[in-house]
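Morning!

This is the sequence you dropped in the shared folder:
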Amino acid sequence: MMIAEESTAWSGVTRETSSGGLGFGFKWNMGWMHDVLQYLEHDPIHRVYHHNELTFSILYAWSENFMLPLSHDEVVHGKGQLVNKFPGDRWQKTATLRALYGFMWAHPGKKLLFMGSEFAQNDEWSESAGLQWYLTEYGEHQGIQKCVAEINALYKQVPALWEKDTSPEGFTWLVGNDGEANLVAFARWDDQGTPFVCVTNFSPMSHERYQLPFPTTGTWTEVLNTDDLAYGGSGVANEPVVIVDGAHLSSQVRIPPLATIWFKRS
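The structure's back. Tokens below.
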């Protein structure tokens, strides 16, 4: 496996050499990383004016075999750790980080997360010091570590999250233009046509009765909620099942503040 870090937008980094490409297996999606982190650095009240930074990457998501990088480059040389890039109090910062991970793992593309980010290390990385493992003894950091572990476990179990990473048939927008709510929702699809739904709310306000479109009728179960109390969240959750109306293909759901939720069809 060969992975390229390339930022010139040259076309064909992951194309086969026989077709004029460079033959790499994957390419870092630097545009996604830059846009999403820039979006999240805005105060939530101003994110409405920058909603395209959250959605633009889908326009070119299948032009290469992409990997979504949150690498060492983002946590060195005075840039600080990921959790400290976001506005708000400490709870809002950690909630935003958990929501980002849920959004990132559901977004098309393979994942790269630099060490220490999985438990929200406080200090930026230095080659002259080890990671702050002692932080994992504290509840806030344990919660983020547990959240990342369960996101990884679910990712392995849900083919829709990775089988069609390089095909537009594997992605459908459900809510792409609700910038006022700082919210996006989309469906991922596996090779058998089975959908999986991701909803991300990057606002500190919850939505108690949000009319959410679903890709199919049926019974949908919330299988991930980054606002779970076990992760350090506020515990805003949905009933065990969400029944989708066949006439409208939508259902009213609870969407927590600064959180990502995943729904799986039963």
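Headline: Residues 3-160 form a domain with the TIM Barrel fold (CATH 3.20.20.80).

More detail when I'm at my desk.
O.
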